[in-house]
Amino acid sequence: MEEQRPKITLIPSTADKLLEVLGWLILFVLWGYTISHYSSLPDTIPTHYNAAGEADGFGRKASVFGLPVIATLLFIGITVLNWYPHIFNYPTTITQDNALRLYTLATRMLRYLKLVLVLVFGGIAFKTIQTATGESSGLGAWFLPLTAGLIFIPLIYFVIKSIKEK
Q1: In angstroms, how far is the first alpha carbon of the chain from the final one?
Q2: Which of the residues 52, 86, 106, 130 could staple to 136 if both were Cys, CB 3.0 to 4.6 A apart?
Q3: pLDDT tens string for the chain (166 positions)?
């Protein structure tokens, strides 16, 4: 039998609002930067990078718009998903007593992940444009470990905090 979880309205904290505003701001900057630099791109640009951050795939310059498009779709999709915290998977049973705390924690985690995603896609777009125009030589060896750390360290933190929340 399916568990009936409480459906409650969450009131975002100042930190939650800040994460939302920063995410939207970075998303708009990503679009602005991409559009403003499009005309200066050569016909062929890097479209893929290896684990060392070196360009190893190339394509048409229009492909640079794939980065803000994907970032936007992910951002909006996670935003909509965040309206329904009662459908998320949780490591503990949701009760009337812990629902507010666990839903708040889960929605904050998703807000953080949205911010990281637009930062990552923004960084890739920035470095792609810089590489295509000869101002840089790829993402750099630091990009993959930094991205993994920005995603997985907070995820582990939020999961552990959720498990401890009874």
Answers
A1: 22
A2: 130
A3: 356 899 999 999 999 999 999 999 999 999 999 999 999 999 999 999 999 999 999 999 999 999 999 999 999 999 999 999 999 999 888 999 999 999 999 999 999 999 999 999 999 999 999 999 999 889 999 999 999 999 999 999 998 998 887 6
Is 56 in contact with 77 (CB distance < 8 Å)? no
Q: Quick one: tokens of 74?
A: 């992910």
72 Cβ contact list (under 8 Å, min separation 6):
27, 31
Closest CA to 75 of 108, 111, 123, 31: 111
**Domain residue spans in the chain?**
13-37+83-166
Global confidence as pTM: 0.90
